[in-house]
Amino acid sequence: MSPKHSKLVINLTFITGACFVLLLDQVTKYVVNKLIPASGSVEIIPNIFFLTNIKNSGAAFGLFQNGTNILIVISIVAVLLIIFLKIKLNLDSIAYNISLGFVLGGALGNLVDRYLIGEVTDFFNFVYWPVFNIADSFIVIGFGVIILIIVKEYLRKDHAKRG
Question: Which residues are catalytic?
């Protein structure tokens, strides 16, 4: 069972997680855009990992190319859904709130790019994997931790029922 925390602490972890990811995402994209020309690449680990300045007008893994307007709408709906989940579920778990903040920050990071420049800057380029960015990473990390929290809670309740 998670320890009880004040609403202020809970809300600050959510907001801090979101702001941290949004800021880190935007700063790294800015640096990549300044240091690496469009479609340019810098090899970091030979034949494995590159920093590559790719513009993505689609969604994850290059799906829905040139769908900026619909992706902006989808991103806004996702942001509103995340905020709704934060308010409605009202969970006091620090890990849950940080993770949900990570998802919000990532969604906002890519939304800012789509809205301001019409495409998202991706730059982490591992051979045999689609190019991605900080926002994408934290969306996956946040959802991953939330799923683990849900599974852990389900198993705890199931064990208590049988116990």
Answer: 122, 136
